[in-house]
Amino acid sequence: MVTNRQERAIGIFDSGIGGLTVLKAIAELMPAEHIVYMGDTARVPYGSKSAAMVTRCATQAVGRLMTIPLKMVVIACNTASACSLGALVETVDRTGAVPVIGVIGPGAHEALARSRNGRIGVIGTDSTIRQGAYQHVVKTLAPDTMVTAQACPLFVPLAEEGWVDNEVTEAAARRYLDPLRTRNIDTLILGCTHYPLLKGVIATVMGPDVQLIDSAEATAREVKALLHARGLERASGEPGKHAFMVTDAPERFARVGEIFLGRPLERVELVILQA
Ligand code: DGL
Description:
It contains eleven helices and ten strands. The chain is α/β, with parallel strands linked by helices. The protein has a six-stranded parallel beta sheet, with helices on both faces. It has a four-stranded parallel beta sheet with strand order 6-5-7-8, sandwiched between helices. The chain is 45% helix and 17% strand. The protein is globular. It starts with 8 loop residues before the first strand and ends in a 5-residue tail after the last strand. The mean pLDDT is 94. It has two domains: 4-102 and 217-270, Rossmann fold; 104-215, Rossmann fold, CATH 3.40.50. D-glutamic acid binds next to helix 3.
């Protein structure tokens, strides 16, 4: 058991593989940090489930992640952040000794900082858009902002298939995003951790006047700021170790994960959660 808190790992949770975009951003910004990733691949997708079911699955998976001593937890899933962040804070540590952050706050802040005309779009899974979490955070921080939200449910399976840049993906993107193009937005939040993989196609469809907000990068910056503020950064010059846990099909996770990370995954362990 690691007793020095700085030496503990950062825990990252996602419904499946999408949170690897957040892991990649964190590892690039903080290469010395150890990271343990949990993907609930047995129950992905969360995006089409009810909020109650998302909370039940996410608290169980994060509970398993917490059997490892961690220094903070990142809910790298917009759907779980939107539906279950309060319950997950309770699961991790309600005293706040192990901080928990989601991806919605960082993405919303970044969009507000970068928008010039106060017209922001957000795309995400059905559950994320239905919960209205981004709309709520943006409106709370800047009530005059106009937010247009659009669910893009086919983007997750397209990303998982590795179809990040072909005519099928572009056709789906045009179908989903054309209505947003008529709203004169200058900023579009990629409100699902799978979507950074489709950035190229989304940028082509939206055109050069719309900036894309990748909540993975914004979240990584918030993780760094939080660890720094609490004196929890790992001091070593050695690169951190990355370990992966999934609830089903570790071989598939390793294969598709390589597309997300652009490198092979070292160790993927299968964990069984009680139904
Ligand atoms: N990665 C999840 C998110 O950011 C989407 C995948 C799912 O539907 O579970 O919302």
